[in-house]
Amino acid sequence: MYPRPFEYRAVTTVDEALRVLHEVEDGKVLAGGQSLLPLMKLRLASPGVLVDISGIPDLSYIRPQGENAVEIGSLTTHDTVAHSALLQERCPILPAAARGIADQQIRNRGTIGGSSCHADPASDLPPTLLALDAEFSIVGPKGSRTVPAKEFFVDLFETQVQRDEILHHIQVPTLGPQWGWSYTKFNRREGDYPIVGVAILVRLDSHGRRLEEVRIGLAAVNPTPCRARAAERFLQGQEISPAILKEAAHRSTEGLHPGSDMHGSSQYRRDMVQVFVRRGLEEAVTRARLAGGNP
Amino acid sequence: MKRKVSLRVNGEEREGWAEDRMLLVHFLRDELNLTGTHIGCDTGHCGACTVLLDGKSVKSCMVLAVQAQGRKVETIEGLEREGKLHPLQEAFREHHGLQCGYCTPGMILSSLYLLRHNPSPSEEEIRRAISGNLCRCTGYVNIVKAVRAASERMATRVEAPSTEETG
Question: What is the tens place of the pLDDT at every residue in A38-87?
């Protein structure tokens, strides 16, 4: 099965990539290609020119930004994220989400930048990056700009990255010991896209009893990855109890309009969001209590 | 337009011609006549076309041939040494890790990638490592047994160096 004919342009620097994207009419950036190439083979996408940025060496890195953040180059593969000692120490939810993406072969080629720009609502990293309040640095002909996660995902398969721009890197925060996290997803087979994916961060008070801050990112339930803001607001400042977590799970579907497909109806997805938000909150709270010495 | 693609396959310098849209799996099979790498689903799900690209397992239907320019590819044909099967191949035969054999080349390449990174994997690690490779005959039980047996055999003797090191 072949894609429609296209012209292949391999570039080796960011400047060259921007120049080519500016020159050509119908260019599309190729990173790891694990979503784009299948779409092209299925003829759901048919760009005229494929600008292959995978050979740009300076876009694949994970490095500390001071004490409080980690910067991840957009071409860093899921496998590299999954095994990063620095991320494991500072931002362990991201390697956890990356480990569950598809399978080893896909993780060896798929990239964090490619997955973010593809913006499939049913992928694992976007809701995680949303919950982290990650920052996306985009470069283009007019220079570079930084976009917060809450503005990055615009619509179905659409982000802030314009046709003549590329995503350069993503910055995620260091999570201190008062933070707990969980990434849970529901799918029927190992490696499938999530039917529902839930990324949760919680920050507890020093006694491990009260929720100071909660962030809930959801996959596969809206045209874009999204936050469960109503549940987050409800939980803020609350004393932790099973009843509270259950009520938050109930509120987590507020404003959601999940689609129906062969994997599950809209109502089924709403029900599953509630189940997985509750489980995810419990897991994140347990982790925060262990990390904070309040088991 | 076709471009010349030169790459190192199983330790040997090879070249062929590829249209920009040609996938690596078609290049290996049709241009280089290495038909051991199979085409299954063509959409990145089944893993039958798995090869190692610069040492990393990839689905060769999800890589363009032109992207392999100047790189190293290992396929099932490169595993045998002087007429002797690789321990993974031996183990798949002994433990009946295949029936129709269609998934086997990809399954073995994924297993090879696993054992190079984790020489003594647990059963769960083996199962996760081959989760990107579908087998519709065996139910996986004997494949897992074969990979475990190969890991034990390879632990007691040094694996024949990869084609890249000898080639």
Answer: 999 999 999 999 999 999 999 999 999 999 999 999 999 999 999 999 99
Residue B30 gets the label, from left (phi > 0), alpha (psi -120 to 50) or beta, of alpha
Q: What CATH architecture does domain B2-78 belong to?
A: Roll (3.10)
The correct CATH number of A180-291 out of 1.10.8.50, 3.30.390.50, 3.40.50.300, 2.40.30.20 is 3.30.390.50
Contact B43 A54 (CB under 8 A): no
Strands B2-9, B72-74: pairing is parallel
What are B109-139's pLDDT values in tens digits? 999 999 999 999 999 999 999 999 999 999 9
- Do B50 and A6 count as a contact with CB atoms less than 8 A apart? no
ipTM, interface predicted TM-score of the complex: 0.94
Strand partners, A71: A63, A171
Q: Tokens 């982000």 belong to which residue?
A: A159
Residues of B with CB under 8 A from a CB of A: 19-23, 26, 42-44, 47, 50, 56-59, 61-64, 66-67, 110, 113-114, 128-129, 131-133
Query: Which residue in A128, A98, A94, A112 sits closest to A225, CA to CA?
Result: A128
Question: Which residue is closest to B107 within chain A, CA to CA?
Answer: A105
A123 close to A217: Cβ distance less than 8 angstroms: no
Query: Around Cβ B51, how many Cβ atoms within 10 Å?
Result: 29
A104 touches chain B (CB under 8 A): yes
**A151, A117 Cβ separation under 8 angstroms:** no
